[in-house]
Write a structure and sequence with these properties.
It is a single chain. With 155 residues, the chain is of the alpha/beta class. It has one domain (2-153): Rossmann fold. The chain contains five helices and seven strands; from the N terminus they run βαβαββααβββα. It has helices spanning 12-25, 42-53, 88-93, 97-100, 144-153, and strands at residues 2-9, 31-36, 67-70, 77-81, 104-108, 121-128, 135-142. The protein has a seven-stranded mixed sheet with strand order 1-7-6-2-5-4-3. The longest helix is centred in the first third of the chain and has 14 residues, at 12-25.
């Protein structure tokens, strides 16, 4: 079962707030897949998720380390950047399974890879508009559990 919602995000503050709203409904074992062009707001959204979980250390792009684990929030946050990964085998090499069941895993550039981490997940496609910089987020809930929670995010 797949359900989609499209939201307008006029500012980075709005993007962070969407992340906070996502954080309110996540559960241990959840996977959130973030896609969009460079500068679309993936890391900003991850920062909002981290803030909503109570992460106090800075959530920054894990581009060069590939994955960062933030344990100080309501739930641990595993923040992954799959941009430089060549396929699922390399994602699997990060050994995310050890943290997956107890954490929320947010994967930037994860489309086509991270969906294999969980049967149900939230996919967020971020698109930065033209000159006005307004972003659009298309949230796609995959699985019945996320479909129900997507309604709460959209309120």
């Amino acid at each position: 079962m797949t359900t989609e919602v499209s939201l307008s995000l006029p500012t980075a503050v709005d993007t962070r707030e969407l992340g906070r709203r996502i954080a309110r409904v996540v559960r241990p074992g959840d996977v959130v897949v973030l896609t969009g062009a460079l500068g679309a707001g993936k890391t900003v959204l991850a920062q909002g998720i981290g803030a909503g979980l109570g992460v106090t250390s800075g959530v920054i792009s894990p581009t060069f380390v590939l994955a960062r684990v933030h344990r100080e929030g309501r739930l641990p946050l595993v923040h992954v950047d799959a941009y430089r990964l060549g396929g699922f085998a390399e994602l699997d090499d990060l050994d995310l399974d050890s943290d997956l069941a107890d954490s929320v895993t947010v994967v930037e550039w994860g489309e086509g890879l991270a969906e294999r981490l969980a049967a149900e997940y939230l996919h967020v496609l971020l698109d930065r508009g033209g000159h006005d910089e307004v972003r659009t987020a298309v949230l796609r809930a995959v699985g019945a559990g996320w479909t129900e929670r997507l309604r709460r995010i959209n309120r």
